Amino acid sequence: MSFVFPPAPTPSLGIADSDELFPVRRILCVGRNYADHAREMGSDPDREPPFFFAKPADAILPASGTVPYPTLTAQLEYEIELVVAIGAGGTSIDPAAALDHVWGYAVGVDLTRRDLQQQAKDTRRPWDVAKGFDASAPVTPVVPAAAVPSVSNGRIWLAVNGTVQQDGDLRELIWPVADIVAAASRAWALEPGDLLFTGTPSGVGPVVPGDVVSGGVSGVGEFSFTIGSIPA
User: Fold this and answer.
1) Considering the entire predicted model, what is its pTM?
2) Which of 83, 112, 134, 224 is the most buried (most CB within 10 A)?
3) How far apart are the C-alpha atoms of 129 and 55, rounded to whole Å?
4) Confidence of residue 58 (pLDDT cuts 50, 70, 90)
């Protein structure tokens, strides 16, 4: 048996201080996992269990250089997030053992067509076109878990043109990393290569072509990229 055309290359991320690559299987994202961000989006953070949406694996690109401005939107917004890279699969994982399934961590930006997301909310339609578009997931190289001092606390921040817009701490996560891994494993069979975006602090906002977006997570990594021009 053979393919009718060559299969697409496997999406991947670099690994910090290594020539190896981390193959990406799929991307699962947690919504509204910081209380202040939940409030700024009009939700009650005290009553909502974790919920997930997805991006395609090929939405991944390095969080460096130029990130293209997408089509169909006049309101492209940033959301900085700690990213969890799964190295050992499982289902119904106990939170007490969840971190044993983590290969490493990275820093990602969940780019969002916010105007299209609001339209989807208003019409009770899926978020796919608002969240899962091409190049919607800039991510830094993955750092092995053993080299990350902590994911229970640490600064997470994002700046636009040098002005800090998001400035939080991982201790503010409503559902910490172990709980996120456990919750995801109850909905899907996690496998090596899965990425979990863990939510964003308050301060999300728009970017326009030419803006320089930078940020990081303490102990994990930092990034800087420029928003490209609006497509013709």
Assistant:
1) 0.95
2) 83
3) 10
4) very high
